[in-house]
Specification:
The structure holds 2 protein chains of 2 kinds. Chain A has helices at 54-59, 67-70, 78-93, 99-127, 132-152, 172-197, 200-206, 214-220, 224-228, 236-239, 260-284, 337-343, 345-348, 354-363, 368-372; strands at residues 5-8, 13-18, 30-36, 39-46, 161-162, 165-166, 304-312, 315-323, 331-335. Chain A starts with a strand and ends with a helix. Chain A folds into 2 domains: 5-46, no CATH class; 54-372, Cytochrome-c3 Hydrogenase, chain B (Orthogonal Bundle). Chain A is globular and about 70 Å long. Chain A is α+β, with helices and mostly antiparallel strands. Chain B is α/β, with parallel strands linked by helices. Chain B folds into 2 domains: 2-17 and 72-178, Beta Polymerase, domain 2; 23-67. The longest helix of chain B has 27 residues, at 24-50. Classes of the chains: A alpha+beta, B alpha/beta. At the A-B interface, helix 1, helix 8, strand 7, strand 8 and strand 9 of A face strand 3, strand 4 and helix 7 of B.
Chain lengths: 373, 203
Amino acid sequence: MNGLLQQDVNKETFTINLGPQHPATHGVLRVKLVMDGEYIVEAEPVLGYIHRMHEKMGENRTWAKFLPNCGRMDYLSAMSYNHGYVAAVERAAAIEVPERAEYLRVITVEMNRISSHLLWFGAFVLDLGGFTPLLYAFDDRELILDLLESVTGSRLTYCYFRFGGVYNDIDDAFIAGTREFIKRQRKRMPMYDALVTKNIILIKRLKEIGHISKDMAIRYGATGPVARGSGINYDVRKNEPYSVYPEFDFDVPVYEEGDSMARYMVRMDEIEQSMRIIEQALDKLPEGEIKPKKAIKLVKPEKGDYYHAVEAARGSFGVRLVSDGKNQAYRLKLRSPTYSNLSLYGEATKGMLLPDALALMGSLDLVIPEIDR
Amino acid sequence: MLLAKIKEALSSLYENIQETEETPDADAAAAVEAEDTAVASAAEEVQAEETAPEQEESKPEEVAEPEEPAPPPGPKETDYKAKGYHLDVDLPPEKLPEAAEILLREDFFIESITGVDWIDDEQLEAVYDFNHFDELCRVVLRTRTDRENPAIPTISHIYQGANWHERETHDFFGIKFIDHPNLEPLLLPEDADFHPLLKDFKA
């Protein structure tokens, strides 16, 4: 462990720094820990090491020019962030989206969600000391990145959505490749189940450890798999339907236990649900336009404020716009899910063993650029 | 169902305000009056265009009249499809903790807190977003404070998640949250003495 070590003689506690450069923090997150031996007395995350002030950037460029910024916050589920932003602007400016474009959005967002969960799966088990699953997960994820690259032109920081549609149509090779991927992935999941989920070492590290209660989720505003692992049946796709999600049949995995294992199980189950959505979307994919005939360059929403939330891989991503009727935002607030999810870390880790707190941190699925924005 | 319930609960916050400032009847009268003056001033505008230009000097005053903000009469239901939220609650700053307690009692969770710099009005607005896990109901609390000396009571003792959101809002706008346990910079450097989301901030 790096950082300073301070001894407080009277209290017999000492302070250590976890990070800002530490493999378990997945980026530059620093946690100030007051320790009593191996037990945590107080944990305080210190943020802002890669804060870039995206919200100010939103105020000094046109609506359209902010699009590339969206993919640079949560670089693992960039597609959801694109979706949240364009949907908010479309709501504010009352822009219609062709049905085929909405289908393409759902397909790409869900593929991105699978790739995000796969990376989390590999990295999480790596945090716990298992190296091999990371390689398996990256193997699968690579196929998704290749498929998405063929449509969007990028592998990570996508900027695929436009106001009123998407910028490129999918081809037969993409559809065939996606179906092939799903077929392959369905065979891989039982292997992960046998290799990792039923592994006694993993169970011992996660089960009944790192408890987050429903009450805590309410007071801190935790959403996504963190909330669903605490018995809260909340998914923006179901509770606040947007895009064409109501047309698909899928379940929201909910686990009551509230421990690290429950959050692990939620994400593993979500991979299958996302595949179900993609399959249905490919089956039902309507013909038609994918964007407005004339590209929308000038967006002038009416004065007022607007809110739109989407279900990103890590929870509810919300965009709050304030427009003064110009071609750029007066105020652009980005509500990122892990910011709220991490804020409960101090309360949740009180009295916990340090290695368990690291497992809890992994189960929150942190992406630091999205917290700092 | 939930919307009606929370609307009624939040309406109770306005009782004192209405007693001291205006009765609901007077409110309605004021609204009618505002409508009348709007029509009248529109007519006058047409007249002003037709008649001599010296009348234009008196025009701005008359046009401004109907825009004068009426005292907040209570929670307003909004068009969810167009706006993305259900209930818009404009409150004086000192009523915020009470409103947060009401929302927590109904199991609302906190989405975010943010600010808006209304530099032309010399005011800062703080916006609080709440939502419910079981039934979709987005509630927006908003309050305004003086731009020179912005201060709003904290709700971080009610919603612990507000702690970070308030610190962020303090970072970006300089709004002081009274009785906040630790209003140190969170996203900005620890020695930051600037507030980048103020409209007059220049890097």
